[in-house]
Design a protein that fits this description.
Phytyl_CoA_dOase-like; Phytanoyl-CoA dioxygenase; 7-stranded antiparallel sheet; 3-stranded antiparallel sheet
């Protein structure tokens, strides 16, 4: 287990200096990452741009880049309203999830495919096809599809990578790519994501997961899309604004062989599944890639699968159905 993963998710508890604990664990590990350079050492950092080739260069060099005006005004307005209504509805229904510190000011919305057509439509945004195939190859799918509403008083979170849960660690190449859609103007004050530039290159990791030293922050106008790969060290920034909130939507895609965080084939409702296009179903893990993802045995590559109406069950030797009880073995 990567020691930073264990520490971040409380699988490893320690007393005393957590930085010394991390470095001690590094000394025992075959992977010993170096401390990242300070963001002030760079001559330039990525800025929002409509030039997609520049965004590609930024992602390659820094691990992240910004697409300016990625959402049209109608798309932005529709997503803003749908997310606001969903957040208020979940809070009123008593099913909301809050975090961000002792007072839990942040609200997270999970499993967005179930939460509105606007979120389903975003799965077919041109930027998905623009970036995912060349980075993740064929058969990529969502690991998670969520929203994070960062509100004033948030403490932020510890530094992590979206690839930190892959064990054993594979730092040599990206297993995922994230699209973060800004639904408001995002800046340092209202909790822009903290990022360690170029921390995707080589064996680089922070010594202290709860120290933002050396980081920059994701900043851009509403409608911007932040593209960042899964090895970049980052964290939700503290929101020190006097009012308002910072809502963003996160589409985290992974390579076809990576187990997703959200099991969409179980969590997506039949009603939503019935109106999903093939691209939406691929995003949610319904597509067979190579020999993975079949139902009732092998299915050809590219098949969009569904729950079988009549699955093969336990049978007697004469072909009749048998009851299944506890084995005596």
């Amino acid at each position: 287990m990567d020691c930073r993963y264990g520490h971040h998710f409380n699988h490893i508890s320690s007393t005393g200096d957590s930085r010394l604990g991390v470095k001690f664990a590094d000394a025992l590990s075959p992977i010993q990452p170096a401390s990242p350079p300070h963001s002030s050492s760079y001559g330039r950092l990525p800025q929002p741009t409509a030039d997609l080739e520049q965004v590609r260069r930024d992602v390659k060099e820094f691990g992240y880049g910004f697409v300016k005006d990625a959402l049209s005004p109608p798309q932005l307005a529709g997503l803003q309203k749908r997310l606001k209504d969903q957040a208020e509805g979940e809070a009123k229904a008593g099913v909301a999830y809050f975090d961000g510190g002792p007072k839990k000011p942040n609200q997270r919305i999970w499993n967005l495919p179930n939460k509105g057509q606007e979120f389903l439509d975003l799965l077919e945004h041109p930027l998905v096809e623009e970036f995912m195939p060349e980075t993740l190859g064929d058969g990529y799918h969502l690991s998670s599809y969520t929203a994070n509403i960062n509100r004033p008083g948030s403490n932020g979170m510890g530094m992590h990578t979206d690839q930190i849960t892959i064990n054993p660690a594979v730092p040599q190449f990206p297993l995922g790519l994230n699209l973060m859609w800004f639904l408001c103007d995002v800046n340092e004050e209202n909790g822009g994501t903290r990022i360690l530039p170029q921390s995707h290159n080589g064996l680089v990791a922070p010594d202290n997961l709860f120290d933002n030293a050396g980081t920059t922050f994701a900043s851009g106008p509403a409608g911007t899309c932040l593209v960042f790969e899964s090895r970049v060290w980052h964290a939700t920034g503290p929101n020190i604004a006097q009012g308002g909130e910072r809502p963003v939507i996160l589409q985290f895609y992974v390579r076809h062989f990576v187990r997703p965080q959200e099991n969409f084939t179980l969590s997506v409702t039949p009603e939503v599944e019935a109106r999903m296009t093939a691209k939406m179903k691929q995003a949610c893990g319904y597509r067979v890639t190579a020999t993975l993802g079949g139902v009732e045995g092998f299915r050809p590559d590219g098949t969009i699968v569904k729950r079988p109406e009549s699955p093969v069950v336990a049978l007697n030797a004469d072909g009749t159905r048998t009851s299944v009880g506890r084995s005596k073995l």
